Amino acid sequence: MPRCSSVHGNQMETGTDLEIYMEVYKGGLRNPSAGQIHQITAHLSSFGKLQGKNVFYWFQNHKARDKQRLKKKKLLMVKQHPQSCCYYASLSSQMPATRQGSVTVDAAALIIGL
Fold first, then answer.
1. Helices 52-80 and 82-94, packing angle to 10 deg
2. 85 lies in a domain?
3. Can you count the helices (H) and strands (E) in the chain?
4. I need a labelling partner for 56 at 20 to 30 A (CA). Which of 7, 12, 27, 93 fits?
């Protein structure tokens, strides 16, 4: 399956690429390190031409789109249930902030079998 769009020359993911990206992303890896990007690139390049910047940009774009979806979902929830949202927002502001744990295991290596 060709990777390049004939119209703009942009990189296009194959079905296999997307599956691997999504498995890694759902596994908790949101900001892969340079080494992890290199591992993912090496694995995906067996399916065709691919550069590390494509892997980096995929994760960056996917994270931004997730953020937009969440923002849109919260806004819709506020519009549909204004009183209940204000109540939950006040409760969450009273709770101590929690930090999501960082991925300690190289999720990319585990998922793609490197």
1. 120
2. yes
3. 5, 0
4. 7
